[in-house]
Design goal:
The complex is a heterodimer of chains A (315) and B (285).
Chain A: H1 27-31, E1 50-53, E2 70-73, E3 88-92, H2 96-102, H3 107-128, E4 132-139, H4 147-170, E5 173-178, H5 186-199, E6 205-213, H6 215-231, H7 242-248, E7 261-264, E8 283-286, H8 296-308
Parallel strand pairs in A: 3-4, 3-7, 4-6, 5-6, 7-8
Antiparallel strand pairs in A: 1-2
Chain B: H1 4-52, E1 61-63, E2 70-74, H2 76-79, H3 82-94, E3 99-103, H4 108-111, H5 113-118, E4 124-125, H6 132-135, E5 142-146, H7 152-171, H8 183-192, E6 202-206, E7 224-229, H9 236-247, E8 251-254, E9 257-260, E10 269-271
Parallel strand pairs in B: 2-3, 2-6, 3-5, 4-5, 6-7
Antiparallel strand pairs in B: 1-10, 8-9
Helix pairs in contact in B: 1-9, 7-8
The chains are: A alpha/beta (315), B alpha/beta (285).
Chain lengths: 315, 285
């Protein structure tokens, strides 16, 4: 897939012709009036700048009015609360081929459209304060697809990584690739290693791309690493517990290895062998739209649903 | 002429009126949204009632044979509602689903298993000694009770089993190369430690959060997951709707193999139209 990212500068807000509006309740305070058992619908319009003003609850003449403190959040759409944003969002990008078929287009067009969607979502995640985005780009089961299609995908990965390296560096994005990379073409493996090395010190945002990945493979390779440690005397037989396995999972490359929210597109209600261990307490959101059609409005809907639902964690 | 004071007054009143109008429109928008959700909830309740009564035609026939193994996840705070759990199991059994796995994170259902099993004549406890394919042929109801200890903790125990085998094989001189363990070996090790049940076709989650709360992850690679809401709001119609949605799904992926289901297959069907009363815990059918 392509990783051509174009980040627009934040919009400039023109100064108000009069004093700021006062006595306006916080948006999120008002939203709490809604019944908590219902999923909140996204606002009718998509991203819009809005003013979140303090509610001082007092009136007064023009001489007595204090300077109202004005918080301007230019990057969050209406209804989203920055303090309640998930730190790590995982996405199963399903539906590229169905999207192409529904438009009588070749499969390649579906994947390219999917890449554009990914670009949009990465940009939005960066803007809205999500720290990590994991995407399920290529499953270990996908190796059984037609060879032509697999080669197409590998070439798209390669091209995307080459074209967007400068953007990742400029936008301070760290790239991590997880999965059984030994099955990938050697040129792509080398490109991945270079890209990971080049971006490893970037801290603003992390994009984890799962390629040739399966959740069961992740657990097995963690156990293999522990077995090798045992071979060198670093781990005693019988000492393996859940925390040791967690440390060896491939998602340990991230500060936030467990997704808070999983989004799966195309209307399928399964996790398809993605991050099986890590998703135990992850909020699941199944979107009806196909991945190339998944944009800002759909992401906003998922995030609003996440923020509205009560989340529980296991003991 | 000093226009500053009138100008300030004008701004003040514009500010005030603007605030009032803004707040009114804000409350109006939220009132409309609240009404929409209220209406949706009423419609959902009505639909559930109509499904329970067998009045909605499309829900009259369920292809139950597509559900070989059903898993039910219940949040631990609600798992102590044994009567609700039994009611749910009764409905599921009446619909013809005989092999069920019950999960809650803290193992509360495990403690209630005797009470639950007593309510179903002939129901047996799932044991790992059953091969999965033999389990599915059992004519009677089988119930499996699992908790967090059968999930991640079981994988850790299985990893220790594999590690011991690896150390022994190294001591015997065999060289396994880089691939020390495989996924199938992990599956076998999970059976050895008593946590190797079959992969459910469908997993229903009863609780406020839409997550599977630590259900043994090894077993839900391709399991369809549906969130049902809190157990205290248990509705027969919602259960039927969830089962209907699963059984009418035309694409069932299983690894690299796509099984396309068509209406001509001779599936066992359950006709819900004959019974116009929801099965109850008191033995009505």
């Amino acid at each position: 897939m392509l990783f051509s990212l174009h980040f627009s500068p934040p919009p400039v807000i023109a100064p108000l012709p009069f004093k700021p509006l006062s006595h306006v309740p916080h948006y999120h305070h008002t939203l709490n009036m809604l019944p908590s058992t219902h999923v909140l619908k996204p606002p009718l319009c998509s991203t819009m700048e809005h003013f979140t003003l303090n509610h001082h609850g007092k009136g007064g003449g023009e001489e007595e009015e204090e300077e109202e403190e004005e918080e301007v959040d230019q990057t969050l759409p209406l209804g989203l609360r920055r303090e309640a944003m998930p730190r790590h969002v995982a996405v199963i990008m399903d539906g590229n081929r169905r999207w192409a078929r529904s438009r009588d287009l070749p499969v390649r067009s579906g994947y390219e459209a999917g890449a554009r969607s990914l670009r949009t979502i990465v940009e939005l995640c960066c803007k809205w304060g999500i720290k990590v985005l994991s995407v399920f780009a290529f499953s270990s089961d996908n190796w059984f697809r037609p060879k032509v299609e697999v080669e197409l995908l590998m070439s798209l990965f390669e091209r995307g990584m080459q074209e967007d390296t400068s953007i990742f560096l400029r936008e301070n994005i760290r790239i991590s690739v997880i999965g059984d990379l030994a099955k990938l073409p050697e040129a792509l493996q080398e490109l991945i290693l270079n890209l990971e090395e080049t971006t490893k010190n970037n801290t603003h945002f992390q994009l984890i791309v799962a390629v040739s990945y399966s959740g069961q493979y992740d657990v097995v390779q963690a156990c293999q690493r522990l077995a090798l440690k045992a071979k060198h005397g670093l781990v005693e037989p019988g000492d393996i517990d859940t925390s040791l396995i967690e440390q060896e999972l491939e998602t340990n490359c991230s500060e936030f290895p467990h997704p808070d929210l999983l989004i799966r597109t195309s209307g399928e209600f399964r996790i398809s062998n993605f991050m099986l261990w890590q998703l135990a307490y992850t909020e699941l959101f199944f979107a009806q739209s196909l991945w190339p059609d998944f944009g800002e409005a759909e992401l906003l809907k998922a995030l609003l649903a996440f923020q509205q639902r009560r989340r529980r964690y296991g003991g | 002429m000093d226009f500053a004071r009138p100008k300030r007054m004008l701004y003040f009143w514009i500010d005030k009126i603007g605030n009032v109008l803004f707040r009114l429109s804000w409350h109006l928008v939220h009132a409309i949204i609240y009404l929409c959700y209220f209406t949706m909830a009423m419609l959902h309740g009505l639909e559930s009632h109509l499904i329970s009564r067998g009045l909605l035609r499309k829900y009259k026939y369920l292809h139950i044979s597509k559900i070989n193994y059903l898993a039910i996840v219940i949040e631990s705070e609600e798992a102590c509602r044994t009567s609700n759990v039994i009611q749910l199991l009764l409905w599921v059994a009446t619909l013809g689903i005989n092999h069920i796995c019950l999960y809650d994170n803290e193992g509360i259902l495990k403690k209630s298993k005797d009470v639950i099993l007593d309510k179903f004549d002939g129901a047996i406890l799932f044991q790992d000694t059953h091969e999965n394919n033999m389990l599915l042929d059992q004519p009677c109801m089988t119930l499996e009770f699992v908790s967090f200890s059968d999930g991640k903790e079981a994988v850790a125990r299985a990893a220790n089993v594999l590690l011991m085998k690896y150390i022994k094989s190294r001591a015997a001189g065999s060289n396994q190369g880089e691939q020390i363990f495989s996924e199938s070996e992990m599956s076998e090790a999970l059976k050895t430690v008593g946590s190797g049940g079959p992969e459910p076709d469908l997993l229903l989650i009863y609780g406020p959060a839409r997550c599977h709360l630590g259900f043994p992850a090894w077993r839900i690679r391709y399991t369809e997951i549906q969130h049902m809401g809190p157990l205290k709001s248990l509705k027969y119609g919602s259960l039927i709707k969830a089962l209907y949605r699963y059984t009418t799904n035309l694409q069932i992926w299983y690894g690299n193999k796509q099984v396309k289901c068509s209406a001509v297959l001779p599936w066992k069907t359950v006709n819900l139209g004959k019974s116009n009363r929801t099965p109850s815990i008191h033995g009505d059918s």
